[in-house]
Design goal:
By secondary structure, the protein is of the alpha+beta class. It is built from three helices and 14 strands.
């Protein structure tokens, strides 16, 4: 089998990390705060999206709890409580958009490097974000709101605030060394054979008394003659002589 390893890394010293999202409602506004030193100019900028449009940003971990990815949206359905979805995008792989719910969301990043497939394959390298709801309300106001002017005429907008977890995961999948794989296969086959031979030995050990007595007919004698029949006849013979 393939060898899989997972390394847990601190988010603060690494990054930035690619983040791709999609507006799944009538209209969305997205902006990022706290990643000025990492995000190559994508922080503190308002991204306005119509339904179905996508965006790309560079996420990081900030020391300020109110920083992170902020989103506002006008729901297509008044009863809808979700808005901007975020996830991984790879050419040919498609896009996976888990939904950001209303409130404060904590997101974990998993970066998978699959060395069993060639470079350029969608499964070779991919980044995936997994969200969990931390609070049903966005209780921390963003430090800045560059989308404020664009949202002036928007009424009834819902809000979500996403932060990155302090740790992320680097997952590697690779094939084992051919020699180690061969040794493992041989060891597995040896284990199967020895287990089978041991089972045969135990079975024969239990059946051997029956098999060895079969030609003598003792198994029939045990069924038809009581154990004390021979001693009773011998006692009668001795009594007649006396």
């Amino acid at each position: 089998p393939d060898v899989e390893t997972v390394a847990i890394k601190w988010s603060a010293p690494d990054g930035p990390f690619d983040l791709h999202g999609k507006c799944v409602n009538a209209r969305c506004w997205v902006w990022l705060t706290g990643c000025d030193q990492h995000a190559a100019g994508t922080s503190e900028k308002c991204v306005k999206l119509e339904a179905g449009e996508t965006f790309s940003m560079q996420m990081c971990l900030s020391d300020v709890p109110a920083d992170g990815l902020h989103s506002r949206w006008i729901p297509a359905d008044p009863a809808a409580a979700h808005g901007v979805g975020i996830g991984a995008t790879a050419p040919g792989f498609g896009t996976f958009f888990p939904v950001m719910s209303v409130g404060r969301v904590s997101a974990s990043l998993v970066i998978t490097n699959n060395l069993t497939v060639p470079e350029g394959d969608p499964y070779h390298l991919r980044s995936e974000w997994f969200n969990s709801l931390a609070s049903p309300v966005p209780d921390l106001e963003p430090p800045t709101n560059p989308c404020l002017d664009d949202m002036a005429e928007a009424s009834g907008a819902l809000a979500s605030h996403m932060t990155m977890t302090t740790q992320y995961y680097r997952r590697s999948v690779e094939r084992p060394h051919p020699l180690l794989a061969f040794i493992g296969d041989v060891g597995g086959a040896y284990g199967v054979v020895t287990t089978f031979l041991f089972w045969v030995y135990i079975s024969l050990h239990k059946l051997w008394p029956i098999i060895s007595d079969w030609p003598k007919g003792r198994w029939m004698q045990d069924k038809t003659t009581p154990d004390n029949a021979g001693s009773h006849e011998l006692g009668q013979a001795i009594g007649c002589r006396n």
